[in-house]
Design brief:
The complex is a heterodimer of chains A (116) and B (113). Chain A is mainly β and 116 residues long. Chain A contains no helices and eleven strands. The mean pLDDT of chain B is 94. The chains are: A mainly beta (116), B mainly beta (113).
Chain lengths: 116, 113
């Protein structure tokens, strides 16, 4: 299957700093990528849909000024958590479509963010 | 509000036996359902799916059953193998073109050799 690479796999940062997470499609081009968040004992929740060359679409309740998404190329989307706070500590995971249909959705391995 | 629920956080099964993983949903607008498998330190990978126009879909050792009236789906793995040990997520979506997949919290399956 297609490969989606996500880095870093884990990051610890101080409160008030910003953290950037990268999501790359290694062997296919993805016009659309998705960012999810998972809190402990909860399910993956879609945060935003990242569209190459245009603004991301954010789900209700997700602050677009706090979670900056950039999809500047067909193989790279980045999520920047700005001015991170302890409540932003979570598991963040990206996915990208390698074709039509949900079976063509491939996930990165995720990033565990801990904000001290 | 959790629209997709997996009420069993874990399941242990002997090798060679059947594994049955369950999933319930609340939104009657969901019309497509998927199962993902996740190994540690890896992202979820697509396993099998089913459309609401069907009640069963089979792929090798994996079969998904859908009971629309009960808003329930299940994944059967027969026979279970140690390599099937992983976390399984069910997911659902509704309306063609929708971008959002709603996930359950996952069930950790352990297949005992």
């Amino acid at each position: 299957g297609a490969v989606v690479s996500q880095h870093p796999s884990w990051v610890i940062c101080k409160s008030g700093t910003s953290v950037k997470i990268e999501c790359r499609s290694l062997d296919f081009q993805a016009t659309t990528m998705f960012w999810y968040r998972q809190f402990p004992k909860q399910s993956l929740m879609l945060m935003a849909t990242s569209n190459e060359g245009s603004k991301a679409t954010y789900e209700q309740g997700v602050e677009k000024d706090k979670f900056l998404i950039n999809h500047a190329s067909l193989t790279l989307s980045t999520l920047t958590v700005t001015s991170a706070h302890p409540e932003d500590s979570s598991f963040y995971i990206c996915s990208a479509r390698a074709g039509t249909g949900w079976s063509k959705l491939f996930f990165g391995s995720g990033t565990q963010l801990s904000v001290l | 509000d959790q629209q997709v629920k997996q009420n069993s956080p874990s399941l242990s099964v002997q090798e060679g036996r059947i594994s049955i993983l369950n999933c319930d949903y609340t939104n009657s607008m969901f019309d497509y359902f998927l199962w993902y498998k996740k190994y540690p330190a890896e992202g979820p990978t697509f396993l099998i799916s089913i459309s609401s126009i069907k009640d069963k879909n089979e792929d090798g050792r994996f079969t998904v059953f859908l009971n629309k009236s009960a808003k329930h789906l299940s994944l059967h793995i027969v026979p279970s193998q140690p390599g099937d040990s992983a976390v399984y997520f069910c997911a659902a979506t509704g309306q063609t073109g929708a971008n959002n997949l709603f996930f359950g919290t996952g069930t950790r399956l352990t297949v005992i050799p």
